[in-house]
Design brief:
The complex is a heterodimer of chains A (about 375) and B (about 250). Chain A is mainly alpha-helical and about 375 residues long. Chain A has one domain: ABC transporter involved in vitamin B12 uptake, BtuC (Orthogonal Bundle), CATH 1.10.3470. Chain A has 14 helices and no strands. Chain A is globular and about 65 Å long. Chain B has a single domain, classed as Rossmann fold (3-Layer(aba) Sandwich). Chain B is built from ten helices and ten strands. In chain B, strand 4 and strand 5 form a beta hairpin.
């Protein structure tokens, strides 16, 4: 405590000579290695398993050769590995990581363990945009999936602006309850419009319906690259806000009192999340509940600190969605389920469990 | 120059005028008590000063409009304790207290400094929470939670404390300790305290100044002795306050 009567300037209390304490809230390198190890093992398993089983040894040899740029060994399954399974598994992993990160961020920001990208209505908005692009055959020349992606991102943005301006009108402080309520109502509204689009979709009915259930079958390396870029940029922004998210998770008023620029952080995180969701939706359709399930399971291991939850959700989400995709492929082989069916099945049950637990905690 | 100066403050929630043209000032070394019945606008004034509620009028900290301060800069100078606390997740007491240091190093790559460690440890010690540091806040009693946020405020180490019912949920021992703690804190030059207090005896014992509010308007303000007159209090509370206090006390004789 200093007898300093003046107004405190930026960084006034940071003594430069002090040795930084080495205690950390985030993970050490060992934990990251363990996470990455589990994820890579799952990835190899998912490439090996399927309607045709491929030996682990061949899989590892082919992938290693492809990654290192060496001559690819003449294994019979090499085209299945490199042109079918690997791009799909990569897309699934990246989508899982992205959606889980979004879920974790929203759950912190809104101080609500049931919040998900879809709680804001951004997922629904994005899916309407993408469905319209399919129904109206909107494409951009050159890149085949750019039409759906641009429409999905555009609608995610529009949804965000609409929801936020409605929320501001109703409640100056943008409280959690207002946002979730508006998000739920907005999702309902969007789903009715979506039904309308489907009713008039004609020839595109099947592809829209299948796509709304979520599927990453037939993904390409191009998809994976787009996902990786979006995740790299948006993920960095979200991870950099871990401390602010901790403050929000304790309470928005408290965050304001300790000096968090509440409106700026909220807007930044929301926009980042909607961009990431827009990209995911345009590539894989609406894969519900991933952003709900992963952070919840992760939180049971890491505790509520976002310096741990956010990175753990990235790895956990990738692993979780790869396993869901594996189930979707092999459960009723040769019939393949849309991946959204598997995640919704698991997610809906878990939703009830979380809701029950949080009710009991407040009782 | 006053530490904190409030001029012609009005706060409106929709149609309702909750605070109506209130002015007051906090000088260094003073403890200003905001007094008044429920619905007088005390907490709303706290919300306006913490920039949580839209207001008209002027609020200046050391002569500068608080709206012109950066969030972190304001937090290093003004510390707010809310009336209600709820935490959504199982953060530990120490994690909550540590967030009080946010405004000193809000950057992405900021590392914990020794000053942070000392501050957090000291705040935990002062509020008697050292043994509970690793416990989840979801398992705390109301009083322990109140002390956790009080500790966060001490870790934040501001120049002015603005406390909305600081003794909420606290038992008699901690009420006394908290007020003694704040009085000792106030002895360092350049500091000031504003608190909303319902217990008029506590307010009178510790406050140096008072602002008496009724239905959003300031009825009286100034030295606490001048504000706490039977005329003022009886009119605002619509009862004989001194007589009631004497009746309460007589039970102990």
């Amino acid at each position: 405590m200093r007898p300093d009567p003046g107004v405190r300037e930026e960084g006034a209390a940071a003594p430069s000579s002090a040795m930084p304490a080495l205690r950390r809230e985030g993970f050490g390198p060992g934990a990251y290695l363990a996470f990455a190890g589990v994820m890579v093992c799952t990835m190899i398993l998912c490439v090996c398993a399927g309607s045709v089983s491929i030996p682990v040894r061949d899989t590892v040899r082919v992938i290693a050769a492809a990654v290192l740029g060496r001559e690819i060994p003449a294994v019979s399954a090499r085209s299945i590995i490199l042109s079918v399974r690997l791009p799909r598994v990569l897309c699934v992993a990246l989508t899982g990581a992205a959606l889980s990160l979004c879920g974790a961020a929203m759950q912190g920001l809104l101080k609500n363990p049931l919040a998900d990208g879809s709680t804001l209505g951004v997922s629904s908005g994005a899916s309407l945009g993408a469905a319209l692009a399919i129904a109206l055959e909107i494409t951009l020349p050159g890149i085949p999936f750019a039409g759906t992606m641009v429409m999905a991102m555009l609608f995610a943005f529009l949804s965000l602006i609409l929801i936020l301006s409605l929320a501001y009108r109703l409640d100056f402080s943008l409280s959690t309850n207002t946002i979730i309520l508006i998000g739920v109502i907005y999702s309902m509204f969007i789903s009715s419009v979506l039904s309308l689009v489907i009713a008039f979709a004609g020839d595109h009915l099947k592809s829209i319906t299948y796509w709304t259930m979520g599927s990453l079958a037939g993904s390409s390396y191009k998809n994976a690259l787009v996902l990786l870029t979006a995740l790299g940029l948006c993920g960095a922004v979200i991870v950099c806000h871990a401390r602010e998210l901790n403050a929000f998770a304790i309470g928005e008023d408290n965050a304001r009192h300790i000096g968090v620029n509440v409106k700026r952080v909220k807007l930044t995180v929301m926009i980042t999340v909607s961009v990431l969701i827009g990209v995911c939706v345009s590539i894989g359709g609406t894969i519900a509940f991933v952003g709900l399930v992963t952070p919840h399971m992760v939180r049971m291991i890491t505790g509520p600190n976002h310096k741990r939850i956010l990175p753990a959700s990235l790895f956990g989400g990738a692993t979780f969605l790869m396993l869901c995709d594996l189930l979707a492929r092999i459960l009723f082989n040769p019939v393949e389920l849309p991946i959204g069916v598997v995640t919704s099945f698991i997610g809906a049950i878990l939703f009830v469990v979380i809701f029950y637990q949080s009710r009991r905690a407040h009782a | 120059m006053s530490l904190l100066e409030v001029k012609a403050l009005s706060v409106r929630y929709g149609e309702h005028l909750i605070v109506d043209d209130v002015s007051f000032a906090l000088e260094e070394g003073r403890w200003l008590m905001l007094i008044g019945p429920n619905g007088a606008g005390k907490s709303t004034i706290v919300n306006a000063v913490s920039r949580s509620a839209p207001y008209t009028g002027e609020i200046r900290f050391r002569g500068r409009d608080i709206r012109r301060y950066r969030s972190t800069e304001l937090a290093r100078n003004l510390g707010i304790l809310s009336q209600h606390h709820s935490v959504g997740y199982a953060f530990t007491v120490e994690e909550v207290v540590r967030l009080g240091r946010y405004s000193y190093a809000p950057g992405i790559f900021s590392r914990r400094s020794d000053a942070d460690e000392v501050s957090v440890a000291e705040a935990l010690r002062l509020t008697g929470l050292t043994d509970l540091a690793g416990q989840s806040v979801l398992t705390l009693s109301g009083g322990e939670l109140q002390r956790t946020f009080l500790a966060q405020l001490f870790a934040q180490d501001p120049q002015v404390l603005i406390l909305d019912e600081p003794t909420n949920h606290l038992d008699l021992v901690f009420q006394r300790e908290t007020f003694a703690l704040i009085r000792a804190w106030l002895e360092i030059p350049g500091r000031g305290v504003i608190s909303v207090v319902h217990d008029l005896s506590l307010a009178r014992a510790y406050g140096t100044d008072a602002l008496l509010l009724h239905r959003g308007r300031a009825v009286a303000g100034g030295e606490i002795g001048e504000v706490f007159t039977p005329g003022h209090l009886n009119a605002v509370y619509d009862m004989d306050v001194a007589d009631w206090m004497r009746q309460m006390l007589s039970q102990w004789q």
